[in-house]
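Subject: complex prediction, re-run

Hi both,

The earlier run crashed halfway through, so I resubmitted it with identical inputs.
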Amino acid sequence: MKRFAPHVQLGLILALLLLAFWVSADFQQIAAGVALFLLGMVLLEDGFKAMGGGLLERLLARSTGSLPRAMGFGIAATTITQSSSLVSVIAISFLSAGLISLQAGIGIIFGANLGTTTGAWLIAGVGLKVDIARYAMPMLAFGAVLMFQRGPGLRGAGRALLGVGIVFLGIAFIKDGFDAFSARFDLTQLALAGLLGLVVYTALGAAATVVMQSSHATMLLVITALASGQISYENALAVAIGANLGTTVTALIGATQANFQGKRLALGHLIFNAVTALTALVLIVPLRMLVDGISDLAGIGAQDFALRLAVFHTLFNLLGLVLMVPQMSRLLAYLERRIAEPVPSVSRPRFINADLGDFPVTLLTALKNELRHLYTNAATLSAEAINLRLVDLIASKDLRLTVERSREAIGLDMDRRYAEKVKSLHAAIIEFTARKAALPLPAGAARRLQELRDAANAVVRALKAIKHLQRNTRRFTEHPQGEVTALYDALRGEIADILVAIEALEQTPPEGRSSLWIAEERRALRESARQVNERVQVLLQTRRLSAADATSFLNDSRYAQEAMEALLDAAEAMYRDEDDALAEIERLLATDDEDEATESLS
Amino acid sequence: MAFARLAEKLDQHLDRLRRGKAHKIKLEDIEKTISKLEKRKTALLAEAEVTPKKAERIAHKIAAADEMLDRARGLLSELRRAATAPEPASDRGD
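This time it finished cleanly. Structure:
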């Protein structure tokens, strides 16, 4: 039954539309206006996403240090884009990637709620007072020209302009539709006074917002209906309250698939809107008096109910902020208690998830963190494979001594641990990067995505190489056997050096480190490999090492080199500078295979 | 040889830049990288003094840091030269 629910719902909506079209041809124009408005909003959102080139995301990352700043960002971003859903999606994405706190996310949502009320002002103050369709025409023409340009910024601007043009056209359609409709019908006959009217019209406002998935569309309809005298002012106020409640239903539906942070944000949004709506319903009489007082002071005409509705919409959302902001810490505590963070699993992805959306900043941050997670699992396993413990190595003051003292066998089922801690994570990263590579990402982001995917492959390559040398390394180091043990200890020491150097990079703040440090490790590694080879030659010549042990060691030494180079490849990508220009410089300066080939020839 | 490879990589970068596939590098970006490399070299020299056991390994790292610094300075002068060089004369149809 649950499976068929969406089909039943869709069928019902289509049947209702058909019935309404049959009853009134003017309703077709109103419905077409709403359709154009919604289409315009989609284009506007897409345009802002493409035009910004990550601008909104960059601003968000910088403007959410405190609650007032987060709220300010929510207000400003929603006022500019006129899309609270776009701002909410970005907030969820940033929260899921761990780039902002839950408090910042809630602050953005609170701000977006207030920012969205500017839409009512635009519709009531401008949309209904001028011939808005005339302004739409040049926007449509310019938008279409820009939309087919090459640059993503221009294409985005074109889409946004086209979106605004279509929104304007939609408003004009609705306005004309209501004017024509009013000549034949009088919907105010359906007006309900008192508490019943308040409840019924609040429910209607919420239902309309759920169906259209847009509180803006509901506000547009109610303001236009109010201006044409098709709804009473009192009932319109209730619809506005309902529209706020309706948006939370949409957010809750979206949050069913979200991770715990997305769910917390959706619940916070629901609580905010529910508290605001209930308070507004209870205080509707004094609120209405306050609106009248403010409107009279601002010079809004006594009969200009559309603008008075805009005042009410802003006022009751402000009321919500006044009520909820002082309760922020209690709200956060409740959300964290109600929706607990799942216990992090070493074998499951912790950072990449469906809530990240398609924003380059968030998906690359999450991917980098997941790569680090994969690397940590692989590094721990690599060390244990050769009877070393990563934590001991990191804490060690004398690595060579720590290695020499680590002779005790560490019980390890490498295949099982690989399958548990590395394989599933690696598969998740590969699947994630393949999916995101299909997105129209900026060139720098697409390159970085590929770099991080290659780094994940390098981590697995390193572990597989370590697996090859595990047996002999354990055989020759668990019990001292003279020179061959010293050779294998030196090899273990080299691997330990690399693991510790990479950990040191992790512990250094981003502004103080560079992926170019990896070149130093490569140089030291190469020199060390050369010295070890010379030492093996000497040991063979002086018969202090058997030919059988020497060949075993030389084979294992090659595997170790392969593993260490692969670990360094992964680290180079992990610690690449976040700044695009500095990352380009690091790529230019870094040594690559061809550099090494030319150096070995020289 | 290393500089020839750097020049080759720079050409590839400029080509990608023309196609909108790379990020533009400013002179101050390279200066920032040089400053980071210089600080790193200073840190390595200090580390070599306090950990004589690791002196040999650190010496190799310092050699690599020097090489990076040379490359970075080479890149800076290449880009400075490119920034001040006159535009190549274009074919005119008249």
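The two ends of chain B are 44 Å apart (CA to CA).

- K.
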